[in-house]
Amino acid sequence: MEFPFLRLLFTFAAALSLAVGLTGCGGKEAATASTEETPEVTETAGSTEAAAKPASTPLTSTINYQNQPSIYGNAEATPITNPVVILHTSAGDIQIELFMEQAPQTVGNFLDNYARQGAYENTIFHYVDPKGFILGGGYTADLTAKPTRGGINNESDNRVSHERGTVAMSHEPNDPHSATCQFFINVVDNTGLNYQGNDPDQRGYCVFGRVTQGMEIVDQIAAAALAPQEGFDNLPGDPIVIQSVEEVK
């Protein structure tokens, strides 16, 4: 079983297709990547061919950020400072700048609902692909799905592109506002994941940060040797663990 809430069906220019299923904190596996076509990132459970709709278990309560004004500052009156976090992983540290102005609700969800609650501790990167992205935040090393809060508003229309090193949230392919805790780091430019329009299949995935240090660690994780299990086709053989998320700014 994979993460009931996140599947990324990625289609590369070479027609390479990978199905991913996520559960709990966000979805199934990621998918394959294409810089021209829009892949799907799903959060579901089951096989990579057919994924069941997940039943998420709230951590404490369900928080819905859709259509809520940002509480993190007024851009017209006060300059917004971007938070900086460090993912301490078993492969090394990855420093990420979070885009508070471009994606305030997504950053708030990442920090308030998960990082500051310790929800990412001892989760793994359960999908890695050197030609696509690395995906994590939803499973422990024994592939137990983490509990989640409610889905959030998709801020992909902030027009921030999926370039190498950017960080984005995953969601179910037919529900662009279903992202919870699973996030991915682009290893290559994945412009096929960008916002294309307001239809559910055109919303894309919200970029809410970028790697500022440790991209070599991201590349190392992406190139890890795989040991596929049912529903986890791109699972590293040796678990790559997110030990903690430190907020440094």
Detailed description of the structure:
By secondary structure, the chain is mainly beta. The protein has a single domain, classed as Beta Barrel (Cyclophilin), CATH 2.40.100.10. The strands form four sheets. An eight-stranded antiparallel β-barrel has the order 7-8-13-11-12-10-9-14. Strands 1-4 form a two-stranded antiparallel sheet. Strand 9 and strand 10 form a beta hairpin. The N and C termini lie far apart (37 Å). The N terminus is likely disordered.
Briefly, what CATH class? Mainly Beta
**DSSP strand count:** 14
| Major sheet attributes | 8 strands, antiparallel, barrel
Judged by helices, strands and strand pairing, the structural class is mainly beta
Low-confidence stretches: 1-23, 26-68
CATH architecture field: Beta Barrel
> What is the domain tally?
1
* Rg, Cα atoms, Å: 16 Å
Main β-sheet, spatial strand arrangement: 7-8-13-11-12-10-9-14
Give the CA-based shape. globular
DSSP helix fraction: under 10%
The number of helices is 2
Cα-to-Cα separation, first versus last residue: 37 Å
Mean pLDDT: 79
Q: What percent strand?
A: 15-25%
CATH superfamily: Cyclophilin-like
SSE pattern, N- to C-terminal: EEEEEEEEHEEEEEHE
CATH topology: Cyclophilin
